[in-house]
What does this fold into?
Amino acid sequence: MDTKTMLSYIAVMAIVTYLIRMLPLTLFTRKIESRFVRSFLFYVPYAVLGAMTFPAIFSSAGGLIPSLAGTVIALILAFRGKGLLTVALCACAAAFLAGLIPGL
Amino acid sequence: MQTLGFSCGFRDGIPIGLGYLSVSFTFGMMAVAQGLPVWAATLTSMTNLTSAGQFAGLSLMVTGGGYIEMALTQLVINLRYALMSLSLSQKLDKTVSLLDRFLFAFFNTDEIFAVASGKPCEVGKRYLFGLAVAPFWGWSIGTLLGAVAGNILPIPVRDALGIAIYGMFIAIIIPACKQYRPVLIVTLCACILSCLFAFLPVLNRVSSGFTIIICALVSAGLGALLFPVQEQERQAQ
It folds into this structure.
């Protein structure tokens, strides 16, 4: 692949991604009054993150068992109110340790 | 009402940035393993700032996909950002000018959006740009490091790093679920739907980008119908 092709690919990706993010943010500068729409938008982040996490997390760390171990640890720590970084790193550590157990 | 400054945003961005390091490290490592030069991997991260879209884009690049295919793939995978940007547009205070919106749109990732949405009050310009600093550099530097040094890490370590991003997602979701039951119901609904799309025949042929959009529309729509949010409750979240 030559440099020009590579730059074109990257430009296409970047422009499409930017437009998707930019248009709604600049077009809707006023408060939306509809209670339904406001409620809908309030729930969106959690729905999106939930759908992105499950079931993808079960195959995220190599095998099923390490991924499950990481998931359980992440759920427990998040439930106890630990921060983003702590939860993420401990999930990695749990997945790594579970991956070391032979036969899994 | 209290306003959140640049340094407060910057602090909130640090865990995201550190989390990104591990995910973008994986991206840099994979990009180079599949034949991309280090500069191209790093440039992709610095101009796109998105995880799923970049991983999909990478495989299209190396298999020589068309530009239209590339554009459509990015559109489908990243369309969720349109929902997030729309949601975020309702959360900004008066310090955020139109120009700021044009600029900040670039930084509206899943995690930056989630943290900004999680704030109990409206968010301003200083907070937002503070919030974006660490994630942007974490994503860029992580890619560079992964591209240059990824093959040094043993495979079990690389595998384990793959769960980092989801650990972060869980850390964002769970506190909100604990605090407000409708959020728990909406989130569970999205998780179950998403699993159905992954495991049921026919449904599992829907691309991952569309799956996320469908799950989000249905669950958040259901939430809005069944549990419309009072403005006061919203502020309290």
In short: The two ends of chain B are 15 Å apart (CA to CA). Chain B touches chain A through 105 residues (CB under 8 Å). Chain B is about 75% helix and 0% strand. Residues 4 and 127 of chain B are 6 Å apart (CA to CA).
